[in-house]
Amino acid sequence: MDIHRCRFVRYPESAINAVAFTHTSLPNVSAHKQRQQKHKQVRLAIGRANGDIEIWNPLQGAWHQEVVIPGGKDRSVDGLVWVTESDEEIADNKTICGKSRLFSIGYTTTITEWDLEKARAKKHASGQHGEIWCLGVQPPSTKGGSASHASRKLVAGTVDGNLVLYSIEDDDLKFQRTLIRTPSKKTKFVSIAFQSHNVVVVGCSNSTICAYDIRNGTLLRQMTLGTDLSGGSKNIIVWSVKCLPNGDIVSGDSTGQVCIWDGKTYTQAQRIQSHSQDVLCLSVSADGSKIVSGGMDRKTAVYEPIAGQSGRWSKVFHRRYHQHDVKAMASFEGKGMSVVVSGGSDANPVVLPLRAAGKENHRTLPHLPQNTHLQSAPKARLILSWWGNEIRIWHLLSPAQQLLDDPQAALSLRKNRKLLAQVLVKGDSHISSAAISEDGTLLVASTATDIKAFQLDFTNGEQGEPLQIKKVDMTTAGLGATKIHISPDNKWVSWVEEGSRVMAARVHTTESEAGIAYSTSHPSKLHRLRRQTPKHILLGGLGTYDRNITQMAFSPDSRLLSVADLAGYIDTWILRGPGEGANGVGGEDGDDAASDSSSDSSDDEESDDVAGERWARNPNAALLPKLSAAPVVLSFSKAPRDDGDYDLLAITTIKQMLIFNPLRGVLSEWSRRNTYTKLPSQFRDTRDQVKGVVWQGHRAWIYGVASLFMLDISQDFSPETDSHEGRNGQKQGAKRKRDGQENGAGGKMDKHSLGPQRVKTALGPDGSRWEDVEMADADDQKSVGASSGAEDDDEDVDGGELQRLRDDQGGANSSAQDAEKEAAKAKWWHTYQFRPIMGILPLEGSRDAKALTNGDVPAELPPLEVALIERPLSSDDLPERYFAEGEWER
């Protein structure tokens, strides 16, 4: 396999402005209540400066980015709050978990509620007030010894010094009234926190912190910080306020100080100068034993109470986990987890241990999306990339074309690309998904409100001229799509509406004197199997959020379509012709339609295609089991089996690798023999989630954001023979024990764990012998990231290590003939040298390769090429920083 290592694809990093957990803490419940508590769906919401909202599942430290709700033009998410309703006891000793609702602000006068089940905005509400700068949710009342969630409100602070109330009763969102109007319009309400059910604490821009009773708008106390003594602004801005469980107040301000205030007397108890610049965010533990602060100086500091001195705190340590300002923080504590998640201008979420602060490592989550914003047209050697409202189309020259252009030059991957076109999709919403056909003639893009198709015409343009782009009329119901795909034969477009509804439309081709033109038929809905979700789960938590479809795949012959959702359910459909049943013979579909959970239209199952082809549910679809975790990869093998069925590969968030035969509805024999424990320990223990897979015969090249694995699924794995020493020298033959040892961040700190990186490959018929793959020298590694500064002039890398990796026999390299033969039977191979990986895309050799080289195609040209796109975060992507006196580092 030939690897093109590329860094030319642009993906702008958007700053993290807000983070919030559905629950701040979940108690360790007794054994008989664990069954009820397991349905509490803990999620992390991350809001970015471009308007995107990401929903993450902690997964006890696995951290899976489940859904991304795209932003739009001039939109920003600057504050997030979750509202969780009270649990409700029902019959049969069951509990309906409190429903979770997500609200956001964006420095406008509007509050938005988000529908996570449909991955779009649900409600907007606004009032006659200034821009909202902070938002808080009223905590439950504790009268009578039990929490009551009735009549809770959203309280917002505005830029003109108003405190306003919004009602969220009866699943609604509306402006209620203005609670406080400050005399001075120059006073801004910057931060907010609730001390109790009726008392709210507000940090202001005029060196004050105010406590109000929201029942009548009474000012209970005004706390003053004085003036900035360091020669800065006269007024101190209180960027963040938090309240401890005992009622004490913690504030962080523009002087870099963290202040502790007595919650009963509202007097200052302590002032800690822990930052050299503004403190922008704070977080406190559920039991009040820790405080964490983040600031403009990139520091994250941890504080603990001083033993024997009530109300006194000391800074334990600080670290610089971020490359830029730390702007937002949120904490969560539950059974097996205790973490703080922080974010800022460098776009990387950082997970810090809270309970085990100083004893466990932190973990940096990827800034790149889980579902890559890349796709290739292998036959045309095109690469499609998108972000915001812009789509870019690139062309990569084949090695044969390079030899034709310069016969004396050796095969090189430098300067082998060309930007063909830039497409701007009109509208206020950003692109949620895009797809290009394998021959590069059809392009489809979707937003939250629309689906648009374009025809790419290469026939009329001569060399050096841009391609022609024509709009294709596409009939839709006025809804956008969260995911979209084009079948390999270019005859079908399938997409997902409202998160879980699968649609398909036939692509028609019309030939005329003007050329070939595309059009689409009226879309039809593809029925999914009815899944019996218990009522106590359906009505609580996040509802049907886990039915969101995140994976979609066509078989190479375009006769099979498969989708998978967050709950782990897989649905498959078969394309059948006129008078042909779903099983390939004449007949009806039986009671497929009757088993569907919805029947919106009487002709959902039919297509108006003149050829009579339509999609029917696979009769054995119900035999496919529910996955034990959400799938992150769903892919068909490139070649069919002897019986005409395909291998359908599914990889889950917990590194389960399962291969199904969908037509028969069974687990493949390979998967039956190679269970989870027999997979290579390096693959199982890799913390990053899998992003995608590229097939090369029976080899599956599986990649994550910082890892690349090759697994040969024609061979069986054995935990005994495949165990070997890991990168740190320890034996790795079994799954790493994490239960009770880690708290959801980066794992325990081990002594003597640092060492040089080693890459090994398995050799021998049984994979029992190992050989190191040499890495590039330090100077070569530095040249990897060399850039001329211009986006389109970044250099590809054609180092010696890549030449060795291009060996089609699993990456093995040996000068001895017997070693080469053994490498041909390598079971698996892996490396961590590529990072961060945005995507790996397959490319095919030029269709005119023989003509280009006068029939003499070099033997060294591999049968498969891939473009490996890296997108490292560089200092050029970050905004300028403001430095304190004496601090001039970049």
Architecture blueprint of SSEs:
Blueprint: E1 2-6, E2 16-21, H1 34-37, E3 44-48, E4 53-57, E5 64-69, E6 79-84, E7 88-90, E8 94-96, E9 100-105, E10 110-115, E11 120-126, E12 132-137, E13 153-158, E14 162-167, E15 174-181, E16 189-194, E17 199-204, E18 208-213, E19 218-224, E20 238-243, E21 249-253, E22 257-261, E23 268-273, E24 279-284, E25 291-295, E26 300-305, E27 313-319, E28 326-334, E29 337-344, E30 350-353, E31 363-364, E32 374-377, E33 382-387, E34 390-396, H2 399-405, E35 417-424, E36 433-436, E37 442-446, E38 451-457, E39 468-472, E40 483-486, E41 492-497, E42 501-512, E43 515-520, E44 524-526, H3 535-538, E45 549-554, E46 560-565, E47 570-576, E48 614-617, E49 631-636, E50 648-652, E51 657-661, E52 666-667, H4 669-673, H5 681-685, E53 690-696, E54 699-704, E55 708-712, E56 724-725, E57 731-732, E58 759-763, E59 769-773, H6 778-784, H7 800-805, H8 817-823, E60 828-831, E61 837-843, H9 849-852, E62 865-870
Parallel strand pairs: 1-62
Antiparallel strand pairs: 2-3, 3-4, 4-5, 6-9, 7-8, 9-10, 10-11, 12-13, 13-14, 14-15, 16-17, 17-18, 18-19, 20-21, 21-22, 22-23, 24-25, 25-26, 26-27, 28-29, 29-30, 30-31, 32-33, 33-34, 34-35, 36-37, 37-38, 38-39, 40-41, 41-42, 42-43, 42-44, 45-46, 46-47, 47-48, 49-50, 50-51, 51-52, 53-54, 54-55, ...
